[in-house]
Amino acid sequence: MWKLRVALLVLIILWNVWNAYAAGNPEGEAQFLKKLMVGYNNKIRPVKVETTVTQVTVFLNIAHVEKVDEEEQTALVHGHLWASWTDEYLMWDRKNTNISKVSIPSLKIWQPALALYNSARGNTWHLYMNGLPATVYSNGKVWSSGTFSFFVTCQFDFTNWPFDQQSCPIVIADWVYGLAQVNLSDPYNMAEYAKPTIRMSYDPIDNKKKRHVGGWEVLDSWKKHCYWGPQGCKEGQPEGEPDWYWSLLEFGITLKRHLPYYQLTIVCPMTLTWLLFLLTFWIDNCNMAVALIMLNLILQATYGWNLIRQMPPGIQLYSLTGFLTVFQFALVVYTNFLEERLPKDYVINFGFDITEIPKKLGVEKWFKPKGFSFDPQEILSPEEYIPKEIVNAPLEDGSPFEGIALVQSESETEYLINLPSNSEPESSHEKIEHLRVEDARPTTVIPEEQEERKLSVQFHHIKRFCFFIAVFIYICAFALVILF
User: Fold this and answer.
1) What is the pTM (predicted TM-score) of this model?
2) Cβ atoms of 110 and 140 closer than 8 Å
3) Is residue 429 packed enough to be buried (19+ CB in 10 Å), middle (13-18) or exposed (0-12)?
4) Could you give the CA distance from residue 37 to residue 32 in angstroms, rounded to a whole number?
5) Are 149 and 128 in contact (CB under 8 A)?
6) What is the pLDDT of residue 132?
7) Which residues form the signal peptide (predicted)?
8) Rg of the chain's alpha carbons, rounded to an integer?
């Protein structure tokens, strides 16, 4: 009797050893896979009852944002995709085989027909998870993964530029099966995978999270689940026939513009051009005003190309400054042309006296004829550094000293100083008989106060009014940019 017991114990030990060997033997697993895949059809949905809905769970990991095209409003996003579902034809009893999971090439098993609905390219419409073998567990749970490069369409809003935030969705759905067959469901008890994970750096030593790419900062991600049907995309369970709806997942990332040198490269040059533009209204000399306007246009053209490339379509402030500068150039040139061509007594009839408006508003001091000048002859004018008592001052005996004469021609003012010669000294009582000018134009003595032309005064007031209108326009533009 004891011999029989010993024989049974030996057989049990040998059976366990054989099972352990078969479980760890590659040839045994290959034979098991071959047996498991007999009669399997990867084109048929893996359910034994047609009314069973296949629940597919999809996960995303964002690895890199390569390019954000503001003009086309698209983004190129790279990452990894995982999908999980239950295959009822790939189940086995673990106790009989001692095999808990197997790896099967993804192309040999059924996969959901996932498609990228907001793809900006036709060749990235279908999503195939064939990069790595799929892992199949004994209970029929399938895990398949792959890498992706999604070129998706976005809808940008540049209202708050350059402090704007943009969103780019990634819309995925099954384009073959409706809700009655496949449902892209949310994961259960896996809150960390409720939205796409963002991991753009895999440095095991430096565990800092990388978030800045291509002038943008990846702030966050999101995930939405809805059902697309006749009434649009509804988040709740739809009412009606399931065949009328499709399960849809919307992943997405939120981007924030990153311009660390915005003040230096954009604000400073733009402020300089604004100041030059406003300063020109206070310059009465036409040649100097035209020179400043041309300098302003050159500066705008120099930094404008880089600015236009950074700013979105429909730029406001830069276009506004360029338009006003061109208008200013036309105003200065045309008013100077009219002053030279129109008669001296000509006055523009506005229906009211434009020169009286500042007096009524109490801002007459801002409309004084004297403006800024860069002419050295005007900056160091003899009227300022020669005392008035020296010009034509009387001598001790009461006779006038005519060694300095102030004369004016049609286009310029000259001071003629009669200096005595060393060889032939002249008496200080002799008068200057002739004052010769090289262009032989008649000269007259300038009176102490010469009245300006009425037309020049009108043009002067028009320029000052344009200055205040431009300041008001800039204030409104800044308010619109900051508030809205």
Assistant:
1) 0.55
2) no
3) exposed
4) 9
5) no
6) 83
7) 1-22
8) 44
